[in-house]
From TrEMBL:
It comes from the Bacteria. Residues 183-253 form the Baseplate J-like central domain. The lineage of its organism: Bacteria, Bacillati, Bacillota, Bacilli, Bacillales. This is Baseplate J protein. It comes from Paenibacillus agaridevorans. Belongs to the Mu gp47/PBSX XkdT family.
Length: 345
């Protein structure tokens, strides 16, 4: 807004106020006296522009965005710990029950046993909040001696750990709140209640899905994958504390729609088929997360554009999705997941 208000323009206006019979050329006493003030005023206008941007949810960032969204009850979600499945075995690979609260290390992280799921199967929580607790799979080492323990493994992610909520995610929740005002248990309320649960990355709400007074909420986790039973139960519990009296709420996970992509490619010099396939698979994973809950089909044309954007791919032929040459339709409760990326030359 004040882009044109520079030191030079301010200096020009100030000098215009000085009578012409006085020396106001560059290097004169008057010029040198006014120059520092003009520089400070130009900096002030820059700061005013920044403050103006911080005042609006669409342009604000950082702590100023959090202050803006808090006015509408939308607080930045802080980092949350990953909750994982832990498998414990004694001699002869017999399932072993371990003490609640016992601690186990995996690389640089510590996981604590929180609750029992079954014989030798427990919920573990990472002591370090954030997404770092989601990535490791494999052996666990007890921090303290556990009687009878022969082997321990870290298994599936039950509730993904999340880093501090990004500005983009916070802004999206804020804009949804102000553009879809809540009203005594409407669909916007149910979505907001579901999205407030750590680990939930998306939600769809179906009012009256099974008759009057019924509401169905379909969720995915923060990686835009089908939610675990643990995350579904936590979301249902959160909504249960918020819902209007008399509402029958059902919370379920989105179902996976496996997509297998095959094609023949022309490689650029210096690239290997395996490296290109790995890069393509990673790009597909990112693309499928970006369209989860927002697209009604997987576009074969879009996949073709994505394939051409992979470094090392000059051209392709014979592109198929699940063996066909057309788009793959998605049901309302389905999200695309990568079943395989198979490239040939």
């Amino acid at each position: 807004m004040n882009e044109g208000t520079t030191m030079e323009s301010i200096m020009g206006r100030m000098l215009d106020r000085i009578p012409n019979d006085l020396d106001k050329r560059e290097g004169s006493i008057i010029y040198d006296a006014l120059a520092p003030a003009a520089a400070e005023l130009a900096q002030l206008y820059i700061e005013l522009d920044l403050q103006l941007r911080f005042a609006y949810g669409t342009t604000s960032s950082g702590e100023y965005l959090a202050l803006r969204t808090a006015d509408y009850g939308v607080d930045r979600q802080l980092a949350s710990p990953s909750r994982r499945e832990g498998l414990f075995f004694g001699r002869g690979d017999e399932p072993l029950d371990v003490p609640i609260g016992s601690r186990y290390s995996a690389e640089d992280l510590i996981y604590v046993v929180r609750e029992k799921m079954g014989s030798g199967v427990f919920v573990l929580e990472c002591e370090t909040p954030g997404a770092a607790g989601n990535t490791y799979y494999g052996p666990l080492l007890p921090v303290d001696y556990v009687n009878g323990l022969d082997r321990a493994e870290l298994g599936d992610v039950l509730v993904p750990g999340e880093d501090d909520e990004s500005d983009e995610a916070l802004r999206a929740r804020y804009l949804h709140r102000v553009r879809n005002p809540s009203s005594g248990g409407n669909a916007a309320d149910y979505r907001d209640w579901a999205m407030s649960v750590a680990g939930v990355g998306g939600a769809k709400v179906y009012p009256l899905w099974d008759g009057p007074g019924t509401v169905k909420v379909v969720i995915v986790d923060s990686d835009k994958r089908p939610a675990s039973p643990t995350l579904v139960a936590e979301t249902a519990g959160q909504i249960e504390t918020k819902r209007p009296i008399g509402a029958a709420v059902t919370v379920v996970s989105a179902s996976a729609a496996p997509i297998t992509v095959t094609s023949t490619v022309v490689l650029a010099a210096g690239y290997t088929l395996q490296a290109v396939t790995d890069a393509f698979a990673a790009a597909l994973e990112t693309h499928f997360r970006s369209i989860a809950f927002s697209a009604s089909y997987v576009s074969i044309a879009g996949i073709g554009v994505l394939l051409l954007s992979v470094p090392g791919v000059l051209d392709y032929t014979g592109l198929t999705l699940n063996g066909g040459t057309g788009n793959v339709a998605l049901d309302d409760e389905e999200i695309p997941t990568l079943a395989g990326a198979e490239l040939g030359v």
